[in-house]
Amino acid sequence: RAKETGKARCVVYSPRHNSPTEHDISLEAAMFQAVREGEFVLYYQPIVDAKTREIEGFETLMRWKHPTLGMVSPARFIPIAETNGLINLLGAWALKAACVQLKQFEEAARRPLYISVNISPRQFRNDKFLEVLDDAIAFSGISGAQLVLEITEGTLMIDPAHAETILAKMAERHARIAIDDFGTGYSSLAYLKRFPISVLKIDRAFIRDLPGSQKDGAICNAVLDLARHLSLSVVAEGVETEEQFAYMSERGCQYVQGYLTGKPMAANVAITALTERHYADLMPADAAPHPAL
Ligand code: C2E
Ligand code: MG
Ligand code: MG
Ligand code: MG
């Protein structure tokens, strides 16, 4: 079976390899084909209010529906796209498509929502990035304030002076900046002072062992404290259990994103989620990303 072959081959792949494996190269060739064939799609994961569980926004997560491999995870293809520059094309498409989708989500929900989009380091540093951003906002007709751009600590630290310029331009457009995977990168806390950041997304690694782990609890509490004093919002990523949800919401975390409150889902499923109260029960089994890839 094609899917199983895909799985088996993926086990050999190591993302830490410095030189591309044979498999990377064939995957890379397939990616260019995939762009032409329209095999890339966007999924949307709810970000919910930790008090009401209402959907406040969605994170856009890219998926590659390969005809024989099945769903290929972005954790596999984004690094390749980052290396060969295809990320600029894919990222521009994702940003624009996500903004257009947000309009449709709002029409279905009949209330304001926001959209959070991942921006890779190379995309952030691309000369055309601000043009791409302006085009997405203008074409979709959303306001910049409805857009959250997720970047990692690493993206800021590659060239802090350049990052400062770009972030100032984003702020002019009222787009908000979220630090993704907060606490896992190589950076100093000084950047929280230097850059106009609005949101911290606590990485799943610090949520996974809650509420049992004292160390993770200490880290989450410290981040929530820090965010409070700096007037930043916090999103807890990867919340899978009611216990994790309760732990974070009781400690003042405003937003939660995780399998408990909604897996990444196709746009039409997201619309159902927005219009049905108990959307978690409505999710089809295939809303989850393919586990092995
Ligand atoms: P990320 O931005 O940190 O996205 C969160 C990841 O955690 C997603 O993985 C999501 O499916 C997963 N997740 C969410 N809730 C849970 C949970 O409760 N449990 C578990 N186990 N996982 C959860 P995904 O979709 O595989 O994406 C992986 C990474 O690929 C993303 O991490 C992001 O860095 C990158 N990525 C995805 N889409 C894009 C894109 O459009 N552009 C760029 N540049 N990067 C993207
Ligand atoms: Mg993200
Ligand atoms: Mg993250
Ligand atoms: Mg992550």
Automatic annotation (TrEMBL):
The chain holds residues 285 to 577 of 581 of the full protein. GO terms for biological process: regulation of DNA-templated transcription. It comes from Pseudoduganella flava. Residues 24-278 form the EAL domain. This is Diguanylate cyclase (GGDEF)-like protein. It comes from the Bacteria.
